[in-house]
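Dissemination and training. As part of the outreach component of the grant, students in the summer workshop were shown how a complex can be specified as a set of sequence lines and then modelled as a single object. The example used during the hands-on session is reproduced here so that future cohorts can follow it. Participants entered these lines:
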Amino acid sequence: MTHGEMVDGIASLLGSVLAQADPTPQAYLLEARQMQALSLGVHIPLVCFGISFPAIVLFVEGLWLRTGNPAYKQLAKRWSKVMLILFAIGVVTGTILSFELGLLWPNFMERWGEVFGFAFALEGVAFFVEAIFIAIYVYGWDRLSPRLHMLSGVPIVVAGVFGSSMVIAVNGWMNTPQGFELDAQGNVTDVDPVGALLNPNLWHEEVHMYLAGFIVASALVAGVYAVAWLRGRRGDYYRAGLVVPLAVLALAAPAQIVVGDWAARTVAETQPVKLAAFEGLHETTEGADLTIGGVYYDGEVHGGITIPKLLSLLAFHDPNATVKGLDTVSADDRPPVGWVRNSFQVMVGIGTLLALLGLWFLYFRWRQGRLPRSRWFYRAVVAAGPLSLVALICGWIVTEVGRQPWIVYEFMRVEEAVTGAEGIPVGYATLVVVYIGLAAIAAVMLRRLARKPPEAETAAGADEIEVLP
Amino acid sequence: MLEELALVVLLVGLTAYAVLGGADFGAGFWDLVAGGPQRGARMRGFIHGAMGPVWEANHVWLIFVLVIAWTCFPRAFGPLMSTLYVPLFLAAVGIILRGSAYALRGEAATISEARGLGALFALSSVLTPFFLGCAIGAIAAGEVPADGDPGDPFGAWTVSTSILIGVLAVATGAYNAAVFLAADAKRAGEAELAEAFRRRALGAAVAAGAVALGGLAVVNSDAPDLFDGLTSGLGLLAVIASALAGLVTIWLIAGGRFEPARYTSAVAVGAIVAGWALAQRPYVLPGELTLHDAAAGQPTLIFTLVGVVFALAIIVPSLVVLFRLKLEGRIGHQPGPIAGTAGEEGGR
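and obtained this result:
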């Protein structure tokens, strides 16, 4: 714990003690932030499946239509049920989020709702389309003609991508707010909803998250079939269940490195303080070094390999460029560096490992035309799923904690936005219980699905969908 | 003008949620009171099967309402959330429990587990519309301050008008659910169940009507401004329209004509929602904040409304496809004996 964090900690402790006697609007800021972070942390992995899984399922269904091999149909049908379960849970967690935005941050919504709300309205539409067609698709197996059935899946793909883009647009806006003016009293005027939506942070966040969606979903799914592979399960069903997500992972993970570089360069331009937090760079430096690895505590990076001038080179493609440090803003306006820097390292580290795993797969696929034989490859695939989840959450910590102390970057601080409601801890505790329950439900339902043999999907009477959300 | 249009969009969304989402919650109510495990088994099975494919789609209306509210009326949304966080949080918890318990019910290993989960599902189905109704009641009764300190976190939504609207929301949901389920049962050739739901629909319709009429007396003493609005001018017109639609619905149900009754019951709900808005014109938060002052700037309203028009162009045909497929029995699982007969009536 740094001296600064210690002071912060004591201050917030004092704050919460004082709040007992005299509730102030900021009494439960930390709890409110944790509650929001918890809810997003639960929701985002589900979003990954919403972004990517429908396309993967449709691809497998397309394989079935082209080849007539029932294994592909079994797989697509099985995965569509997984998709429905995760969507149903996502509806619940997404509803919690919609409520939370207002319940925890009423001043944020009141002041800025008209600026970024348009994107949420579009997201609501996409969500609607998704809900409608996911029902048609999953409940329509064997009841609609094969072509019509596959066609009914297309809107799910489009809506999944479009809807998440809109939410990302709002996040991008919180980081690079635009599309409004402030009058003399500080009131929001001259709102340009489209300008707010198309903010500078939208593009890289969108592509970065989109690829992350494909990486997380494919790594988790591939992991399930890698376990089956290690247990000696073979056949078209298990092979496709492994190869399709592995192919997705192998394409998305290396691409993510390129996109990550783009994202960091954009942040260097739009939010230099955040970039400084990524690297724990305290002072503005010309030709800044980059330390790979190491852990940040006590106000500096310990360990790791330092490469001279690499940060300047990466951030501005010029080894002598000046990189702004945390010292460009006052201490009150700096994010908690430890969280941001360490999460950033974990994300980049795992991302690199996933890309290497993808290349491992591609090498054997292209040069030898087969899957790797080493059991270690399959063990690595099993590990890739949970690791990709860790990287995903770390990435969001980098973005969101790196934005602190602002909720609307350089326009509104989180403590101005938070509710004055008492009883936040009660709500927090309730949510923790609810999420544990939801996780248990998901686990039970997915396990039950996994226990059934693949042939059950195409057996007589298989059109009875028992998985009801 | 624009803010009125945005309000109409919001209220249409609210009506859709009250009718479709409310009917889902109402189905949970009938599950709760279906009787012991033996007697209620068929009805519970039918309810379970009837709701599967459309649950999420019905539910999304709530998200739609929230999003339109904070985008188009941010200056009302903030105070609402600051004052009414208790009932809204409880409603949200109800939504979660309901979805989860419903999903898990098939998983229960023992009968007592199944009953426990079923009870949780049914109970949360009642609590969610109740608390949402209470929140609306608090707005209508003028308990939500626009500026300064938020209202009392408990006192604001426990005034009698709030409780009344909470109860009314539960009753309306139960009545809509019974109408929808009766229509489903009739289409599926389940005459006995159709008759059971017919009786329930009638009972619930009478109960909802009684609560609504008796409630006017409560409103009179509790929120005189709201009462005046509901008993004069356009507000009165809306109340009469709602009452007429309610009576027509009862007549249709009594005659076993469930299909048209679906629509007249929706009209009854829509009219009362409209009546509420008309009664508190020009306020969003009565006596505190007018519609005009609560509204977002013109560009936001224009873009949102244009977006909604495009959205409706996509969503309405999609919903029609979904409901048609469900009504034709082409999607969704058909519990028990229904599977055999659904095909014959398909395509009507």
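Chain B touches chain A through 65 residues (CB under 8 Å). Students were then asked to discuss how this feature might be tested experimentally.
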